[in-house]
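Researcher: For the annotation table, I need structure tokens for DNA polymerase III subunit chi. Please keep the output clean. Sequence:
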Amino acid sequence: MANATFYIISADTPQATESGLMEYILFLCHHFVQQNAKLFINCENKQHAEQLAEIFWDSAPSDFIAHNLVGEGPQYGTNVEIGYDGKTPSWNRQIVINLANTHTTFANQFTEVVDFVSCDEKAKQIARGRFKQYRHAGFQMQTIDIKHP
């Protein structure tokens, strides 16, 4: 059975800021890549995907994670592929990290979905909608409160 994990971001954590959330995304990517998992990061749009790719490139050499944007680089070349609405993974991936406001319509291709609930009220409502969509699709649901950096 596929799982969907929603990380709940509190206002008093570093992840409540854009830069703090991006650092946490890199942390999660490191964690999954160390387990040799194949990841797809679903961004809001092409610009967002390119910004995230730059954050990956700007990390310290010891923290660097090989990655590519959908359609760039070799098809099976990296464990991390970054896409956006309308761009599905170029090959089989195990985990999707959703950074878009919509649910990943192709989520059933993955064994694990990672999503986030922002502390902003409007964003919370949108995340609740995604939560309901995943649950309705048969995902085993889990929430994790982010309480520390």
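Researcher: And a one-line annotation?
Model: Strands lie at 3-9, 39-43, 67-69, 80-84, 95-98, 112-117, 140-146.
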